[in-house]
């Protein structure tokens, strides 16, 4: 196993290849970045775990952007968590937010809640934006109570048509006198040189019931190499994806040492919001003067809180109007 040096096991995306199996993939390990992100919002544990899974998946997919750009994962559903938005600004900036019904969540108690149960039904959209309309791409997957792992598999089947398997995990641990969060993920993709080996089973053929002779008539058998890769991935346990004592390289060696795994240069990531005074002012300019006057509170100020990082901007209405007038002059 070859590797490029990097410091630490946390907040890193590590690409790799298992060439004998025609497999490429990435491992993501989030430590301080995801803990800082979640601490800004003080989410209940169930919500924090869902956001952690979404963040790990977003970083894992967004790290494929070769140039500066943004990869965004967004859900809109009828569940207790009716919205999750995660932004990965290449090459290394992560931010996220979620909206949930606190009363409904508390009514369910502290039992074990699965991601799909909390999200409910709706859709998941994955958007790649590299700065121009021409390079913007969006794939949408229907959510019907499935996990982020299952939704990712569906996305790649219908949008990318690349055999893909994903594992995600989130854990809470007690560290330095407080509870902290960690998240991790591992993705493998089957990329043989022969297009014929990429063939996958078609989606379910409409109203033909399972078990009918025509149902699986044209379904191709899976490539042996891909079957082996999926079997190896299935042996990964959640704690291996989040354990700070198990580096990404060590995990890959455990999985693929018999076949040989090649590790490429890792990319560090960190939590960072893109909000700023200039962005807040750009937003304010989109409102009419009447709307801006309605924003003034009892204290005579305009207060704006960033939904991603919870940063509060305390604005003087007179200064806001003067700055807008200057920019429009």
Describe this structure in words.
With 329 residues, this protein is an alpha+beta fold. It has two domains: 12-198 and 221-271, 3-Layer(bab) Sandwich (Hsp33 domain), CATH 3.55.30.10; 277-328, HSP33 redox switch-like (CBS domain Like). 32% of the residues lie in helices and 29% in strands. The protein has eleven helices and 14 strands. It has helices at residues 32-41, 45-62, 102-108, 115-119, 148-160, 224-234, 238-242, 248-256, 277-285, 289-294, 317-328, and strands spanning 12-18, 23-30, 70-77, 81-89, 93-100, 121-129, 137-144, 164-175, 178-190, 262-263, 267-268, 270-271, 302-305, 312-315. Residues 2-7 and 202-208 have low confidence and may be disordered.
What is the 3D shape? Answer: globular
The CATH topology of the largest domain comes to Hsp33 domain
What is the number of E strands? 14
Ranges where pLDDT stays below 50 over 5 or more residues in a row are 2-7, 202-208
Count of DSSP helices?
11
Mean pLDDT: 88
- Which CATH class of the largest domain applies here? Alpha Beta
Major sheet size, sense and barrel closure: 6 strands, antiparallel
